[in-house]
Write a structure and sequence with these properties.
- A six-stranded parallel sheet has the order 3-2-1-4-5-6, with helices on both faces.
- It has a single domain, classed as Glycogen Phosphorylase B (Rossmann fold), CATH 3.40.50.2000.
- The chain is an alpha/beta fold and about 150 residues long.
- The chain is globular, with a radius of gyration of 14 Å.
């Protein structure tokens, strides 16, 4: 089973798209060849048949422990997984994985030119840029090439 956490916490300014949210999840899910469980909160777009909504931290921990691997944007899940000792895949856009990532994960960043200038600034100042992300086929290729998972 592959666990996915597709979305970041909503921005306080109410902007509809978070600059960390990967735009190609629907296609990526279709390309993955395994049972997929999505975790998230009420109001997020359902991308899989199995969607764990508003799960407790304990329930999320159990899913992380059980999964073959996980795929997430830069959000709380990579930090929780690090604490548990479970490696996975992080899709980056504007945050620098060399600052906020963990070397044991597959950190996928399209190009450093998309990184925000001040890595510690407030997120409400960032705009969404679909071009900052790799296409799903490229992500699958990297997972197949580089992951021992």
């Amino acid at each position: 089973m592959i666990l996915i956490s597709p979305f970041s916490k909503k921005l306080r300014n109410g902007m509809p798209k978070h600059p960390k949210d990967y735009p190609y999840w629907k296609k990526l899910v279709k390309l993955l060849k395994d049972n997929i469980i999505q975790i998230g909160i009420e109001g997020e777009k359902k991308l899989t048949k199995d969607f764990g909504k508003n799960l407790s931290l304990k329930e999320i921990e159990e899913l992380v422990k059980e999964c073959k691997y996980w795929i997430s944007v830069d959000s709380f899940l990579p930090h929780l997984a690090k604490h548990i000792g479970k490696t996975g895949v992080v899709i980056w856009s504007v945050s620098d994985p060399e600052i906020f990532g963990y070397k044991e994960n597959l950190n996928i960043l399209k190009d450093r030119k998309y990184l925000r200038k001040n890595q510690f600034s407030i997120w409400e100042q960032e705009s969404y840029n679909e071009d900052a992300f790799l296409k799903p086929e490229e992500i699958i290729k990297l997972i197949e090439e580089k992951c021992q998972i």
